[in-house]
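Inverse folding, one chain.
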């Protein structure tokens, strides 16, 4: 719908499903808080109390396996179109 609204035609969209895996929560947190990534920039803008609450919330809600690893699925959309 976004491509169509922008005036594009011959639009096709493909879903790309992947699994994200991390050895443990610390590895997950490190990747999510890289200072150049959008999530990392958001986390960097939080004060220490907010950061601690977010970290605790993420630890409580992520699917952590008995061995400590974390794996979850993610979906990306890839579009192809041309402007007439």
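Residues assigned per position:
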């Amino acid at each position: 719908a976004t491509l169509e609204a922008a005036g594009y035609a011959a639009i096709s969209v493909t879903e790309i499903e992947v699994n994200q895996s991390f050895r443990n929560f610390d590895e997950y947190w490190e990747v999510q808080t890289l200072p150049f990534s959008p999530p990392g920039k958001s986390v960097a803008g939080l004060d220490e109390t907010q950061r601690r609450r977010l970290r605790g919330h993420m630890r409580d809600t992520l699917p952590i396996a008995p061995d400590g690893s974390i794996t979850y699925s993610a979906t990306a959309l890839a579009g192809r179109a041309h402007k007439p």
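The helical segments are 2-5, 25-32, 38-44, 48-61. The two ends are 16 Å apart (CA to CA).
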